[in-house]
TrEMBL record:
<protein>
    <submittedName>
        <fullName>Acyl-CoA N-acyltransferase</fullName>
    </submittedName>
</protein>
<dbReference type="GO" id="GO:0016746">
    <property type="term" value="F:acyltransferase activity"/>
</dbReference>
<keyword id="KW-0808">Transferase</keyword>
<dbReference type="InterPro" id="IPR052523">
    <property type="entry name" value="Trichothecene_AcTrans"/>
</dbReference>
<keyword id="KW-0012">Acyltransferase</keyword>
<dbReference type="InterPro" id="IPR016181">
    <property type="entry name" value="Acyl_CoA_acyltransferase"/>
</dbReference>
Amino acid sequence: MHLVLSRVQEDDFDELLEVQFRAFAHLDMHTAIMGKNTLEMRALAKEKFVKDMREDPTDCWMKLVDTATGKIVSAAQWKIYSTWAPLASHGEFKADWFEGKEREAAEEMFTKFMTIRSGHMYGHSHVLLYILFTDPNFQRCGAGSIHVKWGTELADRLLVPCWVEGSPDGYHLYEENGFKDVQYVNEKFGDWLLEYTVMKRESKTQYEAGRSIVFT
């Protein structure tokens, strides 16, 4: 398999989101925040991602395409905060796709997740691996490592740390690429489990006396 890395374009999102929802089918957090895998929910996700791509200067989507089929195998969304500035408020999160206690649990989960993120990451320059997924039929093909290497090399060039909120399935990938544990989260919200590890990789490059020093 020959994979080519390139930027995601707006017309990629229909295909990309089909892969994303399949990849995260068993991850409670994705279902709670993004909804179930339906045409309607994928359309809502597309609307949000396209808006971010157009309006958020930190937003950067990358894709890996199998040259034999032309299909998207894997994708990653990065947030590149090369200079920190207070983030624009996106308003209160409302899980309108659920009702009753299910909706309440989804909204509580999102609030908890964002509180933890802001406590660790907000206020300083960094690169955040926002989303990473690979088609379930092509996992263990090295796609995740390609994305992570791209982002960590960028962070090194910017002289900033790289952060990720790693699911249990992705934990070892990040550990192998130099990320260290900062906080393990395991909490139930209704029937859903919020489980992940906040991980940080320090920049391997520092700038001193007019020259870059790389730490191996």
